[in-house]
Design goal:
mainly beta; Jelly Rolls; about 0% helix
Length: about 150
């Protein structure tokens, strides 16, 4: 497996569930948000984001890095009927095209460790963003629900 060389996440992540449900929003300007965890090479930086704001950097331009960023349950275990996630992303500073990609995972059983672009084994949603052709996948977006590929 070819690992991510240079993706640098510049994330302003907003997850809004239902009107009565919890929300999570951050610009990373105040450091690592409460109730979050970083794994592998991931860290929160005070600069590098939009307009040199704070950002979450998942990897740097060094070979064979993996990372993870987990937001702990912010809705006290309540049922999730829907959500919206938005974020700004920058991939670059290393190989062209950047290898291998990243994934967005939404589930109640996300593991506490680094993940690659194929995401975490979970009972929820994984959206894989593949930016590099390798032995197991080509460039594209894959939507996975409970471990089953729904769309490519």
């Amino acid at each position: 497996m070819r690992t991510t060389l240079s993706p640098c996440f510049l994330i302003a992540l907003t997850t809004a569930v239902t009107a009565s449900a919890g929300t999570f929003s951050t610009d990373f300007n105040s450091g690592q948000p409460p109730n979050t965890s970083v794994y592998g090479s991931a860290y929160v930086d005070s600069s590098g984001g939009p307009d040199n704001s704070g950002c979450l950097k998942m990897t740097t331009a060094v070979i064979s890095q993996t990372a993870g960023f987990v937001i702990n349950n912010f809705d006290n275990g309540g049922a999730i009927n829907g959500f919206t996630a938005t974020f700004q992303l920058y991939l670059g500073g290393g190989t062209s095209p950047p290898a291998d990609g990243f994934s967005f995972n939404f589930a109640n059983d996300i593991p506490s460790y680094v993940m690659d672009e194929t995401g975490a084994p979970s009972t929820g949603l994984t959206v894989e963003f593949h930016t590099f052709t390798n032995a197991t996948s080509g460039i594209g977006i894959h939507v996975v629900w409970k471990g089953a590929l729904l769309a490519t």
